[in-house]
Amino acid sequence: MRTLLHFFLFLITLWVSIIIPPVHSQCIKDQQLSLLQFKKSLVFVSLHPSTKLISWNASTDCCSWVGVTCSRNGRVLGLDISSEHVSAGIDNSSSLFHLHYLQSLNLADNLLGSDSQSIPSAIGKLANLRYLDLSDNRYPGKIPIEISRLTRLVVLALSDNVQLGSPNLRMLVQNFTELRELYLDSVQISEQGSEWCQAISSSLPNLKVLSLSSCNLSGPLLESLAKLQSLSVIRLNWNNISAPVPGFFANFSNLTVLSLPGCELHGTFPKEIFQLPSLQSIDLSFNDQLDGSLPEFPRNGSLQYLDLSWTNFSGLLPNSIGNLKMLSTIYIQECYFTGPMPKSMTNLTRLVSLSMSGNKLEGSIPSFSGAKNVNFIDLSYNGLTASLFSLPLLDYLDLSSNQFSGPLPEISNVSSYLLNGPNLELDLRNQSNLSHLDLSNNQINGKIADWIWSLNNLNLLNLSCNSLGSLEVHSINLTNLNYLDLHSNQFHGQIPIFPSPCNANYLDFSRNYFISIIPSTIGYVFPRTTFFSLSSNNLNGIIPESLCNSHFLKILDLSNSSLSGTVPHCLTTMWSLEVLNVRRNNLTNVDDFSHNCGLKTLDISENHLQGRFLKSLVNCTQLEVLNLGKNLITEPFPCFLRNTSTLRVLVLRSNKFYGHIGCHKTNGSWPVLQIIDLAHNNFSGEVPGTALTTLQAMRTSKDAAPWKINNLQFDLDGIYYQEDTITVTNKGLDMELVFVLAIFTSIDFSYNKFNGSIPKEIGELKSLYALNLSNNAFTGAVPSSLGNLSQLESLDLSKNKLSGQIPPELTKLTFLEFLNLSYNQLVGRIPSGAQFSTFDAASFEGNKGLWGPPLTADNRTGFSSPKLEGNHSNARHEIDWDIICPEIGFTCGFGIVIGSLLFCKRWRKWYYSAMYNMLLKIFPQLEQRFGHHRRHVYVHQRYWRR
Ligand SMILES: *[C@@H]1O[C@H](CO)[C@@H](O)[C@H](O)[C@H]1NC(C)=O
Ligand SMILES: *[C@@H]1O[C@H](CO)[C@@H](O)[C@H](O)[C@H]1NC(C)=O
Ligand SMILES: *[C@@H]1O[C@H](CO)[C@@H](O)[C@H](O)[C@H]1NC(C)=O
Ligand SMILES: *[C@@H]1O[C@H](CO)[C@@H](O)[C@H](O)[C@H]1NC(C)=O
Ligand SMILES: *[C@@H]1O[C@H](CO)[C@@H](O)[C@H](O)[C@H]1NC(C)=O
């Protein structure tokens, strides 16, 4: 991308020099005065003094000043003050506008609009301008219509003023008959295809460069554009074109750049366009409804850059791809290409970057030994099986998620592997540049060949999800290692030792057979680690205190082992630690949390804890997810936790909590609580209505605003912690999952001894998705206010002592997928209509006084409808905390790393669909609400590619 940008800059600069040949002559006095006045009025960002304007002083000829060009007779024709950190000083009264002869004005890359100064309308006075560049200045407001008076313009560039609006495009450009290049990227033009295409095709017959990225343009691409035969560059990135690509683009014989990523294109891409001999760069990425296939490529094609990633392109890769001798970049990841990688790719000697991940390619990998400059190869997520060898020096190699099997070759006998023809012949011995090596998710077995441990530049090493059994070293000495992922293998024995402190930031040893105790010195070895997981091994013994010496530790996952004893005091007082997961161990105690507690997620469920530490949790004022489920805690309801206003998820299920859940008013409320699970305890008494009405997050129905995820970064290897803050794009499923989980709200009070009536205030929790009050002793009527829970998908009130009629308001619950009112004392006719017709008898049985379908035929004397077969368990509506808890944690913005959740799957398109399907099980009507079109995955390219 960067090269393209340079290409454009080069084009622009070229123009300037064509338009204004540099001439030296004595500058005219009044021109000099105007320039000096102009200089005086400029304001610079104080940190960055101007470099060009230093030479501007009255004692020298202004035609010799840097940035000034003159005609032979001393008229100032050109002014270039680009990239000078000018922050203000050019308004309508500026003496700049006295320079009437100006033909070229370049003020790009300053901060002229930073003080809410919009583009001065006096620009229209510079009637001789042929070249005008005001790009990248943070100009707000609108492009002044006076610019349309500059009828001699050849180049107009107003790009990258992010908040700039535009007058009607037709009005703006109608008199630019000489215009060759138009750059309005990120200007909010907001017009339909019928308007903007028409404006351009009727007014700009000589246009060569059309650059309108992110202009909020709609489609279609009108036939009238076919007139613009001179077009060489078409860039419409990230507009909502929503139309097919017109075939007439293939008639533009000078087309060099066609860039249409993220345009919601559909239909079949006209493949003749690929065959244009002039074409150098084509980018159709992120159009997930665009079909197409690759044609035979002509000999000596000029294509350098090919990006089809995240489209529906399919078919075989043509052997003629080897004809594209200039090709340096191929991105076809996440398409549907099949078959082998053509052997002719060997001939792509200019290749620099190759990503074909996420297709269905199979067979062997061609040799790239002739491509001396290739440094990036990503072939992950295919079905590649056979050998790969003779690679040039690489920086980046990702072969993860293929079908490579067999052991890694050893340095001493690679040749014997060649002879034996094993599945994987990977000679990386001399890859001294390699910084990224990902062989994860294959079927590689045996031991880690020791040459891996001599790749001194390795920054990332991912061998996870193979069948490797031995590390083959007792100590790892890779000083540049930042990311080490060995999870889900069959490593056994001791956790590897690092001879000198290891600077790795991310360490995942989870899901292996590492045995024995955690070395007591472990924390001294990993001083910089922020993510550390030993989860799901056979570790026993205690949690060593030395872990607290990893001062950057943010996520510590020791779950699912046989650790016993106490969570050490220092971990509960460690400000950096945000996620602590010790679920499913044999821990018996947790030391008190101190005021230094910075935890956001604490999962200590499934241990043998008795809860003496409970009161000290008030010190964890950042807590968002708290899971204490399945312990032996015998305590009253922890009212003091109501002061933790950040809490989103509270799980107390399967303990021995007892007593009332009402709290004193002086305790705070839970404004963001989304999930409260008190099931399987001994709580009793009434559920006070006020305890519910304070739950703000459940009361307000949220809109689909972009959800900010702090500290998480999308990465080729999943998601992990970073300092930066990002916003997830609001398109596609990634957003949707985040969104769904963000709005997922549930109350589970089942299997307790609550009595009294169900508080009618519950009807105020408008965003509630699931409500389970079953197996209690609630009496009285089913509150009709439940009919207000318009989002409700699951309602279980079974096995209580509820009486009266089923309120007809419940039929308003159009999303209700699961209903269980069985085993109460309800009477009367079952309401009919809407969702109610979908429930079978099991939803109502055990209520002697209920009648009507589906229990009985409609006439009162009728017989009961046949019992439906099948176990009508509501298991599927019970929340699977194994899945939901980390996801919610992730959603809430502090992320338990997905890797440990999904084992060998990564954060990519089929992961989304897996996740989506899981969500569909919990919320069967998701599809109905969000629509099918949003299932397409869409990760903003910025986060995806580096
Ligand atoms: C632009 O051209 C139209 C006719 O095509 C004319 O009426 C109008 O005055 C022109 N505007 C400017 C600013 O020259
Ligand atoms: C294509 O470019 C060539 C060389 O610059 C020029 O002579 C020719 O007229 C252009 N073709 C069109 C259709 O503009
Ligand atoms: C590479 O190119 C040469 C010359 O164009 C050709 O003879 C050869 O067959 C090509 N190699 C492959 C593997 O296609
Ligand atoms: C680790 O590697 C570094 C640099 O390669 C070297 O200087 C150091 O001696 C090695 N340490 C051990 C214990 O092998
Ligand atoms: C952990 O607890 C379980 C269940 O109480 C027990 O069977 C197991 O032996 C314990 N393991 C260790 C290492 O203490």
UniProtKB/TrEMBL annotation:
Membrane topology label: Single-pass type I membrane protein
Superkingdom per UniProt: Eukaryota
InterPro entries: Leu-rich_rpt, Leu-rich_rpt_typical-subtyp, LRR_dom_sf, LRR_R13L4/SHOC2-like, RLP23-like
Coarse class of the protein's main subcellular location: membrane
Chain segments annotated as transmembrane: none
Signal peptide interval: 1-25
Subcellular location(s) per record: Cell membrane
Domain Disease resistance R13L4/SHOC-2-like LRR: 70-286
Gene Ontology cellular-component annotations: plasma membrane
PROSITE patterns hit by this protein: LRR
SMART domains found in the cross-reference section: LRR_TYP (SM00369)
SUPFAM superfamilies: L domain-like
Keywords from the UniProt entry: Cell membrane, Glycoprotein, Leucine-rich repeat, Membrane, Receptor, Repeat, Signal, Transmembrane, Transmembrane helix
Family in the record: Belongs to the RLP family.
Protein's recorded name: Putative leucine-rich repeat-containing, plant-type, leucine-rich repeat domain, L
Lineage of the organism: Eukaryota, Viridiplantae, Streptophyta, Embryophyta, Tracheophyta
